[in-house]
Specification:
This protein is α/β, with parallel strands linked by helices. The chain is built from six helices and six strands, in the order βαββαβααβαβα. The protein has a single domain, classed as 3-Layer(aba) Sandwich (Rossmann fold). The chain has a six-stranded mixed beta sheet, with helices on both faces. The structure holds guanosine-5'-triphosphate (GTP) and magnesium ion (MG). Guanosine-5'-triphosphate binds next to helix 1.
Length: 221
């Protein structure tokens, strides 16, 4: 992939153990780890995708739900393009706590980002304690995209990205593969101490880049 292609930061937020890392792993590598391994601080991955016919690199920031790491998170929210707040549909407290991130991210990013609320673990239907309606209403009231998913079964995760988030990204940041101009602007610096891992081998497809590059707020560092 051309390193000059547009990059979008996606950050995952939410309580400990709601399944942020699992959703990310299902999306980026189509795998699921049943044994819980708490994220320490922050994990970083990347994935190359086609959005509206254009090559795009997604920078995926997987935050830790543990309270002791919470103070680190706002600085990563500040330049995120997509904010995904996750809760566990079997854990009411994790849903209640989403209001913290919903308010904080709206304060920090206002109109600049795409917001999404995700209820995870729908495979555990018999243990559900947060109704779908409750999640949907809360998302709607705050202007968030809403989805219920299962990282374990892979339910609705690719659909969330392909059918909801990618079209929103294309629309908001004016991405189109029809444009043959290659973007040469953009900042590919990594955060100090953060390793950029390319989880997916990009297929060499023809694709243009981003028409709306001047509108992008893609500070990478
Ligand atoms: P922190 O890194 O501590 O913030 O947690 P996290 O939000 O990243 O959660 P993680 O993805 O590590 O998942 C926590 C536990 O829930 C693990 O044991 C996962 O296997 C399990 N889990 C995640 N998603 C699902 C799901 O969709 N269904 C079920 N049944 N279990 C899940
Ligand atoms: Mg994690």
């Amino acid at each position: 992939m051309n390193d000059d292609c547009p990059k979008f930061k996606i950050i995952f937020l939410g309580d400990q153990s709601v399944g942020k890392s699992s959703i990310l792993n299902r999306f980026s590598q189509d795998k699921f780890e049943p044994n819980y391994q708490a994220t320490i601080g922050l994990d970083f991955h990347s994935k190359n995708v086609m959005i509206n016919g254009a090559n795009v690199r997604l920078l995926l920031y997987d935050t830790a739900g543990q309270e002791k790491f919470k103070s680190l998170i706002p600085m990563y929210i500040r330049d995120a393009n997509v904010i995904i707040v996750v809760y566990d549909i079997t854990n009411t407290e994790s849903f209640t706590h989403t209001s913290h991130w919903v308010n904080e991210t709206k304060d920090l990013r206002r109109e600049d980002a795409i917001f999404c609320l995700v209820g995870n673990k729908i495979d555990l239907a018999d243990k559900r304690s947060v109704s779908e309606e409750k999640g949907k209403n809360f998302a709607r009231d705050n202007g968030f995209i809403f989805a219920e998913v299962s990282a374990k079964d892979g339910l609705h995760i690719q659909e969330l990205f392909n059918n909801e988030l990618f079209p929103k990204i294309a629309e908001k940041f004016k991405i189109s593969g029809d444009d043959d101009e290659n973007v040469t602007e953009g900042n590919n610096n990594q955060k100090p101490g953060v390793k950029l891992e390319d989880n997916v081998n990009s297929k060499k497809k023809k694709g243009g880049c981003c028409k709306g590059k001047k509108n992008l707020d893609l500070q990478d560092g």
